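Hi R.,

Here's the chain you asked about this morning:
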Amino acid sequence: MNGVEPLQIEIISTDKIPAGLNHQIDQLDHLAFNSQKDHEDPEFASIDWSSHIDTMVLGRLEERLVTLLGLLRREILVGGKPVWVVGVGGVATHPDWQKRGFSSSILQAAEEFMRDKMDAAFGLLVCSDERRAFYERLGWRNVADEFYFVQNGEQRSLKSCVMILPLSGRDWPSGKIDLCGLPW
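And here is the predicted structure, written out as tokens:
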């Protein structure tokens, strides 16, 4: 196994994260997402993203934080009907540790946690078309190519791949997806 310890996964409520770990999370998030800025859709750059996250899923190797994602439980509207989802956002792996299955590992741990602990019918994430196949391999499915959200008191739309992960036996309703707040 190349002498590397297996990935250690921790699921932690954001209100329990110590300051030092918060700093590591911010650094990894900054490193992972700033390296993507050149390829990012300019429309994404104009969006305020939700800073409220309920839970973090963290992956460490030998105490070094190498991968993470955030979870946010929210009631949204789909076709005008309320639906509880767990938003998955900020899926990031340190560039030095990419292409080793670490994002897949924390997404699988998150799926179990969402299903068993977060009481929502679906996981929901927004991703680029380039990332769609990655999430499909993990059981996510595309349900829309546009969603609506509220920013600065105005409803806006964004054309982007919207994917869900069924967490219960419920069928995903049809219709316009309104995140009822900032996207995550």
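One quick note: Residues 8-178 form a domain with the Aminopeptidase fold (CATH 3.40.630.30).

Cheers,
M.
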